[in-house]
Amino acid sequence: MEALRHQGISGRASTCQLHHYSSNMAALRFVRSVLRSFQESSGLEPRLFGENLRVTGAEPGRVDFELDIKKEHTNRLNIIHGGTIASMVDLGGSLAVASRGLYATGVSTEFECEVTYLNPGGKVGDVLKAVVTCDKFGKTLAYTSIQFTNSKGEIAARGNTFALAWKEPKNIVEELSPRP
């Protein structure tokens, strides 16, 4: 109950409030487990991001995460490399889909992955924050969008992905679906 009070739910919480809190906690746990799977099984994510990338919040359809910028994330100008941000767009899309209960979007199934760079993302020692949403979630396709904010509070980049949504035994789509 203390955790519920922390979320602003006290006394006789409505069934809707309890489901919302429960869905958010389930989404956060599930998204973090998917990120762990990337870190344990992938070749790119553990090498590029390691422990420097973390999920800071999640609810069905939305994930907040951030990256502590290290030297290995930068270009020769000592600012975050566009390729690092592009990789975060791709990973972020997978995490947004995970927030809707899908464990895997498959390998090389992105139909589209776009990035628009607007301001420098940061330098070594800065934190790049990202908010990614699953804007459309159908039976076989998912569309996600992401926005990055640098340490100055400026929008550093925006991106989106359009990917296949795979059926997988580890999916928990029903658990994270809205209830009437």
From TrEMBL:
InterPro entries on file: ACOT13 (IPR039298), HotDog_dom_sf (IPR029069), Thioestr_dom (IPR006683)
Pfam families with a match to the protein in the record: 4HBT
Signal peptide: none
Gene3D superfamilies: Hotdog Thioesterase (3.10.129.10)
GO molecular function term, any single one: fatty acyl-CoA hydrolase activity
Highest taxon of source: Eukaryota
Annotated Thioesterase domain residues: 78-155
Protein family membership: Belongs to the thioesterase PaaI family.
Name the UniProt record assigns to this protein: Thioesterase domain-containing protein
Organism: Monilinia fructicola (Brown rot fungus)
